[in-house]
Amino acid sequence: MAIQQKLSLMIPGPTPVPEKVLQALGRHPIGHRSKDFQDLMEITTKNLQWLHQTKNDVLTITGSGTAAMEAGMISTLSKGEKVICGVNGKFGQRWVKVAKEFGLEVIKIEAEWGKPLDPKDFKTILEKDDKKEIKAVILTHSETSTGVINDLKTISSHIRNHKKALSIIDCVTSIGACSVPVDDWELDVVASGSQKGYMIPPGLSFVSMSDKAWQASENSNLPKFYLNLKSYKKSLLSNSNPYTPAVNLVFALDESLKMMKDEGLDKIFKRHERHKLAVSEAAKTLNLKLFADENHLSPAVTAIQIEDIDAEQFRKNIKNKYDILLAGGQDHLKGKIFRVGHLGYINDRDIITVIAAIGNTLVEQNIISTDTAGKALKIASCHL
Question: What positions are modified (N6-(pyridoxal phosphate)lysine) (predicted)?
Answer without folding.
Answer: 196
